[in-house]
């Protein structure tokens, strides 16, 4: 048996970031993933946004989570030689009198998080504009981050679909005989798939399926993310991504006609240009009750979870993976 400190099951944003945080602390790990093409992390837009929602709510702990995330992704970029973290201002369009008065009321509280858009949005592309810019927004190219990490971790990565029966837990450790692995701890980082795992103790999922279009828009060159309730963000190669929908009843990764209609109408409302849809993707956001991440071990157990990254996984993963790695005793 190959002995490691921690077996991490799931190599999405949660598991991959936990692996990095373990490595930083000199802990050995095995990162096991079933290599699905479509997952929440592989579909996600990776946006980090200081103020969100109709009510213009400041993102929980943005002031400390954002600098932690920037430093973390920058460090991984320099270690792997890959580029996947992009500072990218976000222009928020205010759609109603209610949003406008909410913004005026909160403007002082937002401080440096907001400013006048500089430069203004091009009125030939965005017919209706009243809003503000968030200069400290950013975007993580999540698939690129995952792929660069996997390539870097090399022999520490394993491809397997881990079932509860594969795992033997004792008072002093965990074994995964099928992969010849033994560890002090095993942490499930499975996203919404944990809803089917009896070993993760009935996590209170409030999951939401999301869908995103990839579109080509000729003669268009806005490099910022623009949000009017839906967001439009550059994807490179003359393409943009437009999303995302929320559904609380369908938990498949299958794109739907309803979402396509919602998104096409949304894009026509935002942008005064013809567009061509070149792709549509869907996945389930692992949102848990309270909309906060869950980390830790089941009582007295060697088996734990890192889940609930919700719709803000890029922002939250570095800090909470660090807390979890700190909390796992030697
Ligand atoms: C449409 C959409 C848009 C989004 N936009 C944003 C955004 O703009 N900004 C942002 O920060 N977040 C966004 N998110 C949310 C973000 O993607 C999630 O918070 C994050 O991806 C969750 O990561 P995870 O690692 O917990 O789960 P996942 O990404 O689901 O990863 C779980 C991994 O575990 C593997 N796995 C599961 N079970 C097993 C098993 N038994 N054995 C082996 N491997 C297993 C899976 O194959 C997968 O690779 C978006 C999500 C969606 C769906």
Describe the protein.
- The structure is a single chain.
- This protein has 330 residues and is an alpha+beta fold.
- The protein has 2 domains: 1-88 and 137-204 and 290-330, FAD/NAD(P)-binding domain (3-Layer(bba) Sandwich), CATH 3.50.50; 89-135 and 208-285, D-Amino Acid Oxidase, Chain A, domain 2 (2-Layer Sandwich).
- The protein is built from 7 helices and 20 strands.
- The chain has helices spanning 13-24, 40-43, 62-80, 97-110, 142-153, 257-270, 313-327, and strands at residues 2-9, 29-33, 47-48, 51-52, 57-58, 85-87, 90-93, 131-134, 138-140, 157-159, 168-170, 173-176, 181-188, 208-216, 225-227, 231-236, 239-243, 276-285, 294-297, 303-307.
- The strands form 4 sheets. Strands 1, 2, 10, 11, 12, 13, 19 and 20 form an 8-stranded mixed β-sheet that branches.
- Helix 3 packs across helix 5 (142-153) and helix 3 (62-80) crosses helix 7.
- The longest helix is centred in the first third of the chain and has 19 residues, at 62-80.
- The protein starts with a strand and ends with a helix.
- The relative contact order is 0.21.
- The model has no long low-confidence stretch (mean pLDDT 95).
- Flavin-adenine dinucleotide is lined by residues 9-15, 32-34, 36, 39-41, 43-47, 161-162, 189-193, 210, 212, 243-244, 283, 285-286, 307, 309-315.
- Flavin-adenine dinucleotide (FAD) binds next to helix 1, strand 2, helix 2, strand 14 and strand 18.
């Amino acid at each position: 048996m190959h002995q490691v400190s921690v077996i991490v099951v799931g190599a999405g944003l949660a598991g991959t970031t936990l692996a990095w945080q373990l490595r930083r602390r000199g802990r050995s790990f095995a990162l096991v993933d079933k290599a699905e093409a479509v997952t929440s992390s592989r579909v996600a837009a990776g946006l980090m946004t200081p103020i969100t929602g109709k009510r213009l709510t400041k993102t929980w702990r943005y002031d400390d989570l954002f600098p932690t995330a920037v430093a973390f992704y920058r460090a991984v970029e320099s270690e792997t030689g890959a580029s996947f973290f992009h500072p990218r201002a976000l222009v928020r369009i205010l759609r109603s009198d209610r949003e406008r008065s909410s913004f005026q009321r909160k403007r002082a509280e937002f401080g440096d998080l907001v400013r006048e858009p500089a430069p203004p949005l091009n009125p030939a592309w965005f017919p209706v504009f009243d809003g503000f810019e968030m200069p400290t927004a950013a975007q993580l190219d999540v698939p690129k981050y995952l792929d660069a990490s996997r390539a870097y971790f090399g022999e520490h990565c394993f491809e397997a679909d881990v079932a509860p029966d594969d795992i033997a837990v004792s008072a002093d450790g965990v074994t995964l005989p099928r992969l010849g692995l033994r560890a002090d701890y095993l942490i499930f980082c499975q996203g919404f798939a944990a809803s089917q795992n009896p070993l993760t103790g009935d996590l209170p999922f409030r999951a939401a399926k999301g869908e995103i279009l990839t579109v080509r828009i000729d003669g268009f060159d806005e490099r910022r993310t623009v949000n009017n309730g839906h967001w439009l963000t550059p994807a490179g190669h003359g393409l943009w991504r437009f999303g995302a929908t929320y559904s609380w009843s369908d938990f498949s990764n299958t794109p739907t006609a309803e979402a396509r209609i919602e998104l096409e109408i949304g894009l026509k409302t935002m942008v005064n240009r013809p567009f061509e849809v070149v792709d549509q993707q869907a996945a389930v956001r692992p949102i848990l009750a309270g909309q906060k991440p869950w980390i830790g071990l089941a009582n007295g157990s060697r088996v734990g979870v890192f889940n609930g990254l919700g719709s803000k996984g890029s922002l939250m993963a570095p800090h909470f993976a660090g807390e979890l790695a700190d909390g796992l005793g030697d």
